[in-house]
Amino acid sequence: MSNSIKSILTLAFMTTLFVSCSDSNDDSNNDDAINEALNQEVLTNLSVSVITETYHSMNTNAIALKEAVASLTIGDETGLQAVKEAWQGTRAPWEQSEGFLYGPVDTEGIDPAIDSWPVDVNAINGILNSGDPITESLLESNNEARGFHTIEYFVWGIDGDKAASELTERELEYLVAATENLQSKTAQLYNGWIASGGNFANNFINAGQSGSIYTSQKGALQEIVEGLSIIADEVGNGKIEEPLNGNNGGAKPEAEESRFSNNSKLDFANNMRSIQNVYLGDYNGVSGYGITNIVAGENSSLDTQIKDAIADAVEAIENIPGTFTEAIYDSRNAVELAQEKVLELQNLLDSQLLPFIGNL
Q1: What CATH architecture does domain 214-360 belong to?
Q2: Which residue stretches of 46-168 are H helix?
Q3: Which helix (H) or strand (E) covers residue 82, if one does?
């Protein structure tokens, strides 16, 4: 082969290689831009339309609870029922928020202020018997004497069958203060996320940019997915396990959260819905981008597994017969199945989803 022909072929090869590398770099840059845009869409929707809106619902319902208590009088069974329904209405979005216990709910100490369990009956009785005015600010000193479960204790009674005629004036005074305190905390939490308040949502929206606590979109997504795993672990290894087996492998009903109102099964199911809302990007009938949109494009099988595992956990919890208090004695197999499904979901999140996000 002549030197001139060799030169021509070499030039052609180098030109092709350059064009090929250039195209490859362009494709890579385009892929990165597409992924960043999708990640931001997911982070924006989750922080604004799922998390912030969940807190909005809770605060709105807490206002209704406060108003229902303010109207309650001794002997008013209809009024007491309205308070019970308002408590459950406020409780539901709270339980659906437990898949994202980061941000102000953590840093401002709001979680223990509104959801400490068990209640401190001695402290509550001390306040009732003190003769001092019971105010919202008075309750600030003891998390176990305020919040959801203190209100639940007064409304349902320790055996869950309290009548409106059994209420006292001091208990009504305490209930007013407790519901005012609860609502002030839900307002604080909601305001911590909105743009006109603490604007914590901005940390997710602008992850990887100046002004965000997250140095990358991946870091923000990891925080979100870790939150899902944490609540699955808490339900499976804590909320279900302790009352089911906390008495040397036998039932321990006093460990059951929300037992005064028999709301435990709904609490657990709503914790799973918290995972579902974040994974799908949906809340309160409004659909948006969620973790599923990132996973499905790369691993449709994993995406289907996670969706099915969430649905299975909800179904198993809801299929527990009777009240949870009854079930830990009489339907232990059903409770164990629900626990198993929750822990299967947790394992899937830990072993598959977290590494997937970590490799983005």
Answers
A1: Up-down Bundle (1.20)
A2: 53-70, 77-95, 104-107, 110-115, 121-130, 148-156
A3: helix 77-95
What's the CA gap between 109 and 88, in Å, rounded?
Answer: 22
Token readout for 173 is 């005074």
How far apart are alpha carbons 271 and 314 in whole angstroms?
9
Structure tokens at 61: 């319902």
* Amino acid letter, 142: N
Is residue 10 pLDDT above 50, yes or no?
no
| Distinct helix (H) and strand (E) counts, the chain | 17, 0
Task: Delimit the domains of the chain by residue range.
Answer: 39-194, 214-360
Which structure tokens are listed for 233? Answer: 């672990």
Asked if the domains 39-194 and 214-360 are classified in one and the same CATH topology, the answer is: yes
Predicted structure pTM score:
0.91
39-194: CATH architecture: Up-down Bundle (1.20)
> How is residue 152 written in tokens?
């639940």
User: Closest by alpha carbon to 349, among 218, 227, 204, 207?
Assistant: 227
Q: What pLDDT was estimated at residue 25?
A: 58
Task: Determine if residue 283 is left, alpha or beta; phi over 0 gives left, psi from -120 to 50 gives alpha, anything else beta.
Answer: beta
Residue type, 253: P
Residue-level length of the chain = 360
List pLDDT tens digits, range 202-250: 999 999 999 999 999 999 999 999 999 999 999 999 999 999 999 999 9
